[in-house]
Design a protein that fits this description.
The chain has about 280 residues and is of the alpha+beta class. Helices cover about 45% and strands about 20% of the residues. The protein has 2 domains: about 110 residues; about 160 residues, Immunoglobulins (Immunoglobulin-like, Sandwich). The strands form 3 sheets. Strands 3-4-5-8 form a 4-stranded antiparallel beta sheet. A hairpin with a 4-residue loop joins β9 and β10. The longest helix has about 50 residues.
């Protein structure tokens, strides 16, 4: 958490212990005070009742001195108030117990902010699992001549593509996502390398933000329709959404949506510098 974070944590621990013992002390005092008040009123009631048994005393004082009832509500109210303080003390104790599990902690004019280590790790693991599952469901595809992995029949695909004159028949994502790989502080990039699978390439896609405007949330990639899952949704981890395609036959245009669809990115893999010639021509 850093030096400032450790100092804040130490100060916070000290303050919370002081608050805890203060609240416990006030609760105990309220209980003792209410119990003492109740006993005192009970004794007063008993004393006056005994005196009223004297007939002569009753005649002279009955109309003047009412018999006070024991203050039963006093002890009830005292216990209720004490319970409130004990509840607050329990909250302080829970904060102390959670402190060792804090990933970050800070005190600022707007309040106290913190994140838990285990919670953050669990969320990150869920994001990783989601991204791996999305990548697996993509399977094989890509390229303008690779028809074997098409999900739909070629004729059906062609009919759908002809409905939109902006679509390129062998590259359906072309001209659909703004035509720019970088906009709004977001960038779509790709790295091409040889795959372990013969006749295929491996493609790493990534959408990133900037330090001033970090990327968060989800990014939806739009791939060639020869892939089984052509619209994988990837969780952003550490400001980056990455998708690894392990079986790519050839180049195609990739689209990406970030910031809840506000940012639209487009990258033609055939235009990447340094990409293998065979990959570009397929």
């Amino acid at each position: 958490m850093g030096k400032n974070g450790n100092n804040n944590q130490t100060g916070f621990t000290t303050v919370m212990w002081i608050i805890f013992f203060f609240l416990i002390g006030v609760g105990v005092i309220l209980i003792v005070q209410s119990y003492y008040t109740y006993n005192h009123s009970l004794q007063q009631e008993h004393l006056i009742t005994q005196k009223m048994l004297d007939t002569s005393f009753r005649k002279t004082t009955q109309a003047l001195i009412p018999i006070p009832a024991a203050s039963y509500s006093t002890i009830k109210d005292g216990y209720s108030q004490a319970l409130s303080f004990f509840t607050l003390a329990l909250g302080a104790l829970l904060a102390l117990l959670l402190l060792p599990r804090l990933q970050t902690f800070s005190i600022n004019p707007t309040g106290i902010s913190f994140t838990l280590k285990d919670l953050q790790e669990q969320v990150t693991q869920l994001k990783i699992q989601n991204n791996e599952l999305q990548a697996k469901t993509v399977d094989a595809g890509g390229g303008k001549t690779f028809d074997e992995a098409k999900v739909h029949e070629v004729k059906v695909m062609m009919n759908e593509i002809k409905k939109d004159s902006n679509k390129v028949t062998d590259d359906p994502q072309k001209n659909q996502w703004g035509g720019k790989p970088a906009i709004n502080g977001r960038r779509l990039s790709a790295v091409i390398r040889n795959s372990l699978f013969p006749s295929f390439y491996e493609v790493d896609l990534a959408v990133t933000g900037t330090t001033e405007n970090p990327l968060t949330g989800l990014v939806t990639f739009h791939l060639h329709d020869t892939f089984k899952n052509q619209d994988p949704v990837i969780s952003v981890i550490n400001g980056e959404a990455t998708l690894r395609l392990k079986k790519v036959y050839g180049a195609f245009t990739v689209g990406a949506e970030a910031d809840n669809g506000v940012t639209r990115l487009e990258l033609d893999l055939a235009e990447l510098q340094g990409a293998p010639k065979e990959f570009k021509e397929r």
